[in-house]
Every structure is written in C-alpha cells, then in structure tokens.
Amino acid sequence: MNPRPWQSGAGPAVSITGARAGLSQDVRGRQRRYVVAMLVRTACVVLMALTWHRWPAVAVAALVGGVAIPYVAVVAAQAGWRQQRGPRSAPAAPVPAAEPAVRVVLEPTAVLPPEHDEAA
Q1: Radius of gyration of the CA atoms of the chain, in A
Q2: pLDDT: which is higher, 87 or 40
Q3: What does each C-alpha distance from 16 to 77, 85, 88 come to in angstroms?
Q4: How far apart are CA 58 and CA 64, in angstroms?
Q5: Whole-angstrom distance, CA of residue 101 vs CA of residue 91
Q6: CA–centroid distance for 44 within its chain
Q7: 3-class SS shares of the chain: helix, strand, coil, % to 5
C-alpha cells in the first residue's frame, strides 16, 4: 500500500509561476511593440524625405528601414508571444516504441473474364 496516495506516479508537480500572461496583457504588449515599430518607420520615412537631395545615402538607408520595419515588427510581436509562453511545464508523454508491421504475403490469383449470360 502506498503511504502517499497523492504521489501515485503522477509525475512531477506543475508550477504555475511559469504560466504565461493573460490574453489581454499579451495583446496590449504586442500592440505597444507594434506601435513603437510603426513610429520608428514613420521617422524613417520623414528622414528619407528630408535627406533625399542632400544626403542620398542616408535617404536610401532610411527607405530600406521604412520598408523592412513592418515585417520585422510583425515577426517580433509573434516571437514575443511565443517567448512569453515559456517552456512546456509538463514533460511530454513518452512515445511507445513502434513495432514492425506484420507483412502479409498475398498469393497470386487468376483473373477471370466477366461472365456473359448466353441464355438471353
């Protein structure tokens, strides 16, 4: 008889301290990161417009930044969500060893032509 029935092989206890933030906090954080990225993009576009004739190299760099920032902002927002989830606290279930499939050898069969009703 097990003296501690609550420990009957259920595995390690799961801690809630590693739980991710709530959905509203997650969405708010992603929105904040996205707005900051779009403000930086707006600054790049304004910088490009102001420096186009005087410093073309700076203007082209600002143009590249203005084009690349939306993609980076979306990827960073999604990556931030995955990082907040944290590692899986429960260990994965063990995968049973796959048994080799039993191969059934079929004997060749004769193919007969379809029967025709000669009485008709």
Answers
A1: 33
A2: 40
A3: 24, 12, 11
A4: 10
A5: 29
A6: 30
A7: 55, 0, 45
- Separate counts of helices (H) and strands (E) for the chain: 2, 0
User: Which tens digits make up the pLDDT trace of 54-95?
Assistant: 988 998 998 898 888 888 877 876 765 555 555 555 556 666
Instruction: Report the alpha-carbon distance of residue 2 to residue 89 in Å, rounded.
Output: 26
**Is the pTM above the cut of 0.70?**
no
Token readout for 4 is 């501690």
Over residues 6-27, the pLDDT tens digits come to 555 556 666 666 666 677 887 8
72, 112, 113, 114 from 119: Cα distances, Å: 80, 20, 18, 15
